[in-house]
Amino acid sequence: AQSVTQLGSHVSVSEGALVLLRCNYSSSVPPYLFWYVQYPNQGLQLLLKYTSAATLVKGINDFEAEFKKSETSFHLTKPSAHMSDAAEYFCAVSLHNNDMRFGAGTRLTVKP
Amino acid sequence: KAGVTQTPRYLIKTRGQQVTLSCSPISGHRSVSWYQQTPGQGLQFLFEYFSETQRNKGNFPGRFSGRQFSNSRSEMNVSTLELGDSALYLCASSWTSGSYEQFFGPGTRLTVL
Lengths: 112, 113
Prior knowledge:
The structure holds two protein chains of two kinds. Chain A is mainly beta. Helix content of chain A is 0%, strand content 56%. Chain A contains no helices and eleven strands. Chain A is globular, with a radius of gyration of 13 Å. In chain B, the strands form two sheets. In chain B, strands 2, 4, 5, 6, 9, 10 and 11 form a seven-stranded mixed beta sheet that branches. In chain B, strands 1-3-8-7 form a four-stranded antiparallel beta sheet, with no helix packed on it. Chain B starts with a strand and ends with a strand.
């Protein structure tokens, strides 16, 4: 069965600093991997997805993630944090169907 | 193109009652998936419907059921509500089953008293 683990339920960075949110996956076959963002009282918005093409995936709002099979990781990064990036971020895995398994989420706080 | 819409946005029910939530997918999308989000359990997959058929099902009791209509709109029903059913219920649509990109609605916040 596939699953994801997000390391760190809360991450705090200063505005302009690097954002690094960690995600490790467990899957018996090459999975599809996703990062979603959720703002308060809203649904989930897709940031980026890995579907076995390029290992470095670029998403919206300057976010990117790198698929590392040897480390079973799919960490999310952004070079410079904005105040508007404060939200909850979810890593998710899917085995080519719509049964998507989510991590527990990481709440990102951006300090001025 | 309009996004995924869910109605109602907020709902308050009492234990033992039943509730029906509605989801209208993005135009042209034929797959609808439902998720439950709670602080304790996080985001959990409930089920997926495609072409009016349930394609996948998560690990939830039979009190949770759903259906999909010919226009791809979907409803989710929870019978005999329990306090633990209080959650944000999210609906996601995609073009087809097995499609890797799902678009989420804003959710229905259900409170069970």
